[in-house]
Design goal:
heterodimer, A: alpha/beta, Rossmann fold, five-stranded parallel beta sheet, two-stranded antiparallel sheet, 6 helices, elongated, B: alpha+beta, Ubiquitin-like (UB roll), 2 domains, five-stranded mixed beta sheet, 22% helix, globular, disordered C terminus
Chain lengths: 185, 235
């Protein structure tokens, strides 16, 4: 009988997809990874909903709106191990630069007062469709919303860091991180 | 008259020093790494950051402000000390807004380099996200209070020929911040601004019109850890 592959799910919340790019940056090692893992819910597979319990969930980005929180909680419910990937997931990153500024001020800057929109929105319309997720009062690092098991810093995290960590998680081997792989930028 | 010589041990090894010599200076000269942020060799220590905390006869003291004395037993490392230093670093990271991905100093930053050395993946404390300002009023320097760790390095070293400081603290408590003296600001030359930016252990003081001069992969702490044993950084 074929050994069951490790099931991995990934998501990008308030991030730029740079961390997902860094996952792909493991180059030809992705071939050996594919022998070991199967991707379930992920932007790579375009699967939108969980249909099974996954072994590893990888989260890029922080929580800036209600949808991010919902997705993150679904990942926690459906993943044995949850990994925060990148600075945004760990400490809010660039989206968190709005923390401390009132939400209304941010929205008005984006839709009414910003240099690229000023004068182009005479009706003073602010997006308010019920379909749109609500912005949170501030941006939250993932581990302030759910329990997160592992953290991989970097902007983006180095491909070696991602590969070595995934390999260690899947095979149960020891993880030695060289100095060069743990960086915050 | 020369000061008397004292005999003491660091990590079990015997050392001699003139009375009044700070532990950190003996360690630095002997090639023993004790992490520091606020300490500058040759400048009166402040003990502001507590990174250099060591065990002195079983008690935790700042190595930069504690003079060596006869019979003293200093330990520079233990699991408890290492965890305490990590905790101090983590406090600094959550207390300000240290967004390394958007910081010009990234790769050359002492605070970041220490966190790299300790491989801090995530702080154990909740992020505070304080609301701080950026002050670019000075023609040569940008002050980013989000990144200031209040080490006083700029206040203690950046001075004019008469010994007057260009920098000072203003306000009190959690609102405390560095300020540039208004009258002195006119006297600030490019050289002095460069000195201030270099002495800042984080990206709180940055030169204007000169960012990102060192390309990625050639920055100070890219491949070599701060205080690495090869002596590339003895600070």
């Amino acid at each position: 009988m074929e050994k069951k592959k490790t099931v991995v799910a990934t998501a990008s919340l308030a991030g730029c997809f740079g961390c997902h790019m860094s996952i792909l940056d493991i180059d030809e090692r992705i071939l050996s990874l594919i022998d070991l893992v199967e991707f379930h819910r992920s932007p790579i597979t375009d699967i939108k909903h969980f249909t099974e319990y996954c072994d590893i969930g990888i989260i890029e980005g922080s929580c800036c709106n209600s949808e991010n929180v919902q997705v993150l909680r679904e990942f926690r419910r459906h993943c044995r191990v949850l990994v925060s990937l990148g600075e945004c997931a760990i400490m809010g990153g660039v989206p968190a630069m709005r923390n401390g500024i009132p939400v209304r001020e941010c929205i008005e800057e984006a839709y009414l007062n910003g240099p690229s929109v000023k004068g182009h929105n005479p009706e003073m319309v602010l997006p308010n469709d019920p379909e749109l997720p609500m912005l949170l009062d501030r941006v939250y690092p993932c581990h302030e919303i759910v329990k997160v098991d592992h953290f991989l810093p970097g902007c983006p995290p180095r491909a070696d860091l991602i590969y070595d960590t995934l390999a260690a998680l899947i095979t149960g081997g020891e993880l030695h991180l060289p100095y060069e792989t743990v960086k915050y930028d | 008259m020369n000061p008397p010589i004292v005999k003491f041990t660091i990590d079990g090894k015997e050392y001699l020093a003139a009375a009044g010599t700070y532990i950190i200076d003996v360690a630095r000269e002997s090639g023993i790494f004790i992490p520091t942020l606020c300490n500058i060799p040759g400048v009166k220590p402040r003990g502001a950051c507590r990174m250099c905390t060591v065990s002195v006869n079983g008690r935790f003291m700042a190595a930069c402000t504690t003079p060596a004395s006869d019979g003293m037993e200093v330990r520079t490392s233990s699991p408890e000390l290492e965890d305490l230093r990590r905790a101090i670093l983590e406090v600094m990271f959550v207390e300000g807004n240290h967004l390394c991905p958007v910081c010009e100093k990234s790769g050359n930053c002492d605070l970041q380099a220490l966190a790299y050395r300790y491989q801090i993946m995530v702080p154990r404390f909740p992020f505070q996200f304080p609301h701080r300002t950026i002050d670019a009023a000075n023609p040569r320097l940008v002050k980013d209070h989000n990144r200031c760790i209040l080490c006083k390095r700029c206040i203690r070293t950046v001075k004019d020929a008469k010994g007057r400081s260009f920098f000072a603290f203003r306000r009190r408590g959690h609102k405390i911040e560095i300020s540039i003296d208004h009258e002195m600001a006119d006297l600030m030359t490019d050289e002095i601004a460069g000195q201030a930016a270099d002495i800042c252990p984080t990206g709180a003081l940055l030169r204007k019109e000169g960012g990102y001069r060192i390309p990625i992969a050639e920055r100070k702490y890219e491949k070599v850890a701060i205080g690495a044993p090869d002596g590339t950084d003895t600070r």
